[in-house]
Design goal:
156 residues; alpha+beta; Aminopeptidase; seven-stranded mixed beta sheet; 7 strands; globular
Length: 156
């Protein structure tokens, strides 16, 4: 990275953010079984129960992530994605830690997520495991699906 990473609230109207989101949405859907893709598009991320965050390396979008409130005590991580050229440089961890802090500040005691079961998602599942997430049954409106892996983290 060329400068210290900055995490900001919002950014869905920025064309650079939209380009990264479109890439994330398109690639995630292409690597997921039909009917099993749960990535949100830009309009889906504008929902009032979602807080959206962007990570910046100077003026360059480095990564994105969102927190969806499922109920007062349970949140879901959505749309985590780091620009490919900045992977393994701490961007994903910075966004995830920001989301965890935001969830705690909102009084949530649990964070969950859904990711794919296909090899394309191996690195994502390992990333979440390194941050304390463990596999769990489906939550919220999700149903059992061999193309999905559900993970959760109890917040202290």
């Amino acid at each position: 990275m060329t400068s210290p990473l900055t995490i900001r609230d919002g950014g869905l109207d920025d064309p650079r953010v939209q380009a990264l989101l479109t890439y994330h949405f398109t690639t995630a859907r292409a690597q997921t079984g039909r009917g099993s893709a749960h990535a949100l598009d830009i309009d889906g991320l504008k929902s009032p129960e979602i807080l959206f965050y962007t990570a910046w390396d100077g003026d360059r979008i480095a990564g994105i992530g969102a927190l969806r409130r499922l109920d007062p005590f349970h949140g879901e991580i959505k749309s985590m994605h780091t620009d490919e050229s900045l992977r393994r440089k701490g961007v994903g961890s910075a966004i995830l830690l920001h989301i965890i802090a935001a969830a705690r500040a909102l009084g949530m005691s649990r964070l969950s997520l859904e990711t794919g079961s296909w090899p394309y998602f191996d690195a994502a599942r390992e990333f979440y495991r390194r941050h304390g997430f463990v596999e769990c049954p489906p939550f919220g409106d999700y149903v059992p699906d061999s193309n999905s892996v559900f993970m959760t983290l109890e917040l202290e």
